[in-house]
Amino acid sequence: MKRGIDIKLNVRPIFLSLVHQTVFEGPCRFGHDEELEMAYDQMVEAELFEQYKKDLKKYITDPQINVMECIYIERHEDFMSPESMFEAMTVDNDEVDLYLFNTEIGRTDITTEFAQRYKKPIAIMPYNCCCLADCVPPLIARGLEAYGFYDWDDANKTMRAMRVRKVLRNMNVLVTPRYNANKSFSSESSFNSLAQVTDKFGIKFRVLNVHEFIETTHVVDPTTNSTVPGRNINNLDEADMVEIERITDELIAGANKVGMERDMIIKSVKLWYNAQKQMKLYDCNAFSMPCPDACATRRLNQEQFTACLCHSLNNEMGIPSACEYDIGAVVVMMILSNLSNSAAYMGNTNPIFYDENGDAIPERVITAENLKDIKNVPNLYYTFHSTPNRKLKGFDQPYEEYGIQPFAYSGWGATLRYDFAKDAGQVITMARISPDCSHMMIAKGTIVGGGGVDSQNCSLSVIFTVDNQKDFFKKQVRYGGNHMPLVYGDYTEELEMLAEMLGLEVVRA
């Protein structure tokens, strides 16, 4: 099971030199004395090649972008393009995701033929005088993928977006439906067609019926499972239970407040551990499970677990995991977590309305206490569920402070609790792909509060401001969905780049 965050973008830098074999001056060549000799050209090009390699090392520092060995190509003023030159440039071509050229006048035709031959994305390095605008437009006009980088920041953002596109092409989602493998009974705003998602983005889906999935949590002879009697299924075993108890004790020890019994937490950890076990079997790196569809079976009540903790622990591991069988959310969570290198949070996303005096009105999980210091702040929105995680500020950062509370009033269904109010001032990025895979809604917000830290059910909220509440709402109900996944930080520019790469029309709110 290869996580999205473990997938790298392989970039092959190529330096195209021009070495004159004879001495002459002309409209495109000038110099004094030895500057016109072949040896001088070779010396200058060698220096430029070394500088190119230094720039690559200095400016491309993202560990998820793998800069491959730089290839030096020497061309002469006869402008020949021998097959050996193309063979030298395409070593390990199958592994390369992007070719990054350093080129100048008299060599730009090479990039055109290269792109036509191999149909691989190519880019021209930043600050490459004249060649950026000379090389890229004719390639795009031919329907080929090409980029001209304005500066190294632009280069890095574009490459990060390209890496996420590659991640999507390597995304396998374990889905556990009860009735309908396309949608659940609570996520109508998910994709209209999973087949369309596969065709457009390359994402694959592996289906395991929710009854079979739940039965694999039982530590019994797997051939006795009632859903598939006689088959040797991938059930949990005694060794798994030892690890499950260890993980449970770690969760309890690390929490600042625990509002439920250990044996009830074990049951929810067991569901998560089983999800991990099945994802490894099915070679998946994302997960989703229905809520009302499964709830109505009474099996969750019988087993005394919910998927809340499962989603929280998956997400903080870099395994996107969405509530309510919302495949639209799990795909966007894969995108956001890989752009930000941090875990995403998803939930029901709604505006907070105001009374005639301009005071924010408490509703659902938003209490007067939650609003007391922000009731006059305009353009309030909130997202609520019970699936936060401890890696909102980065997969490479220490665990954030958390608590544990039950989902059910009767004390079962472990959920992590996180105080979003302590992150007031934090910029967040939200996104959603429309159900027909045609648009991507992109928005920013700023956290101003939160609530539900000591409550049960889907009550944990993050309250934030948006630029224009009505504009956000109108675009959400047209192009978005009920769940608007979010991450910490501003990644709107990278999202716009990615949307263009995926053939999605951008909707900014």
Automatic annotation (TrEMBL):
Gene Ontology BP annotations: monosaccharide metabolic process
Entry keyword annotation includes Isomerase: yes
Keywords: Carbohydrate metabolism, Isomerase
MF terms (GO), sorted A to Z: intramolecular oxidoreductase activity, interconverting aldoses and ketoses
Keyword Isomerase tagged: yes
InterPro entries: Fucose_isomerase_N/cen_sf
Coiled coil regions in record: none
One GO cellular component term noted in the UniProt record for this chain: cytoplasm
Designated name of the protein: L-fucose isomerase C-terminal domain-containing protein
Organism placement in taxonomy: Bacteria, Bacillati, Bacillota, Clostridia, Eubacteriales
